[in-house]
Design brief:
It is built from nine helices and ten strands. The chain has helices spanning 3-28, 76-79, 136-151, 162-174, 220-227, 233-242, 244-247, 250-264, 277-290; strands spanning 31-32, 38-39, 45-52, 55-63, 91-98, 108-115, 120-121, 188-191, 201-202, 214-217. The strands form three sheets. Strands 1, 2, 3, 4, 5 and 6 form a six-stranded antiparallel β-sheet that branches. Strands 7-9 form a two-stranded antiparallel ribbon. It has a two-stranded antiparallel sheet with strand order 8-10.
C-alpha cells in the first residue's frame, strides 16, 4: 500500500466516523458545536463539544474493534460511572447501533454523551515532552484521585492476565524467567490502566478515557505515567516522589517492571518509546535485581 493509498483510506475512515458522530448526535438529542472534531490516532473514535439543552457536553462515537479486546472494554466508560472520588467525566447517556453504510457495514458503534472535562489535555501525545508547570494542587488531586480509584472494589477477573503478560515479556525483553510464586503477595487494586499525559488535563485535573480500567498491581498507574515522563526528568522524579509509598513496595516494583516490558514490547514500531529504550531497560533491570 502506497502513502497515497493510506491517505485515501484514512480520509474515508474519517468521513465515515464523522457521519456516525452526526448520527450519534441525532440519536442522543444533542447539537454538535463548531469546535474541531477530535479523532483518535487509530481512527477508532471521534468526539466533539456539543450542546445538551443548557450545557456543553462531550459527544463521542466509537467503533468496535476486536484488536483492542480484552484490554479495551466496550462498557468501560459507562461502568466507570460507579467509581467515586476521582476527577473524571461521567457518561450521561449512551446508545448502541449497527452501521448500515456500505463502508464497514454491520460494525457495532456506541455514542456517548459525557460531562465536559475541566482544563486542557496536557499532551497531544501520551509522552510528555515539555514541562506543563502543573500547580501543587494538581499533584495533590492526582494523588487523591488515584488513591480513591485504588480503594474502589477491584474487579475479580483479569482478562489481560497481568502477571502472565509480565512474565512472558520479561523473558522476551530481559531473558529472565520469573516464577509465578514471585507474584504471590502482589496487591491488586482498581486501576485506570492507561494513564499517560494524553489522558490527563491541566491545570485543573480530569482523568480521561476509562475504556481500559481494570485490576492491576498497586502502583501500575503511577508506573505507566512515570514511563511516559522520561523526556522530562524533573517530572519523572516528581512522580516517583509523589507515589513513593506505593512504588517502593513489592507491588510497586512489579508495576514498574510490567510498565517497562509493556513499552519495550512496542519499541521499533516507530512510536515515541523508540527514543527511551535505555531508560526502559534500566528501569526493568533495576527492578529485577530487587525481585
Amino acid at each position: 500500500m502506497t502513502d497515497e493509498d493510506v491517505e485515501v483510506a484514512v480520509e474515508e475512515r474519517r468521513l465515515w466516523l464523522l457521519g456516525q458522530l452526526n448520527a450519534a448526535a441525532t440519536r442522543l438529542n444533542v447539537v454538535p458545536g463548531s469546535s474541531e472534531v477530535v479523532n483518535t490516532y487509530d481512527m477508532r473514535s471521534a468526539g466533539v463539544v456539543a450542546r445538551d439543552q443548557d450545557r456543553d457536553v462531550w459527544l463521542r462515537v466509537v467503533t468496535e474493534d476486536p484488536d483492542y479486546q480484552p484490554a479495551c472494554r466496550w462498557d468501560g466508560n459507562v461502568e466507570a460511572n460507579a467509581i467515586s472520588g476521582v476527577p473524571k467525566p461521567e457518561v450521561v447517556r449512551w446508545d448502541d447501533w449497527t452501521s448500515t453504510t456500505d463502508y464497514r457495514a454491520g460494525t457495532r458503534l456506541r455514542g456517548e454523551v459525557m460531562t465536559l472535562a475541566n482544563g486542557e489535555t496536557i499532551s497531544a501525545d501520551g509522552v510528555l515532552y515539555t514541562d506543563p508547570h502543573l500547580p501543587d494542587q494538581w499533584w495533590s488531586d492526582l494523588r487523591d484521585g488515584l488513591t480513591a480509584l485504588a480503594a474502589h472494589p477491584a474487579p475479580h477477573d483479569d482478562p489481560v492476565d497481568a502477571i502472565g503478560y509480565t512474565i512472558r515479556n520479561t523473558e522476551t525483553q530481559f531473558g529472565v524467567t520469573l516464577d509465578r510464586a514471585v507474584f504471590v503477595d502482589v496487591v491488586f487494586v482498581t486501576s485506570h490502566a492507561d494513564l499517560h499525559w494524553g489522558n490527563l488535563t491541566g491545570p485543573e485535573l480530569t482523568i480521561l478515557d476509562w475504556e481500559s480500567w481494570r485490576r492491576a498491581p498497586a502502583g501500575y498507574d503511577a508506573a505507566t505515567l512515570y514511563c511516559h515522563s522520561f523526556a522530562q526528568p524533573q517530572i519523572a522524579d516528581r512522580i516517583r516522589e509523589t507515589f513513593a509509598d506505593v512504588l517502593d513496595t513489592k507491588s510497586g516494583n512489579v508495576s514498574l517492571l510490567a510498565a517497562s516490558v509493556r513499552y519495550l514490547a512496542i519499541v521499533g514500531e516507530g512510536g515515541d518509546f523508540d527514543a527511551f529504550v535505555g531508560q526502559l531497560r534500566e528501569l526493568g533491570e533495576n527492578v529485577l535485581k530487587q525481585l
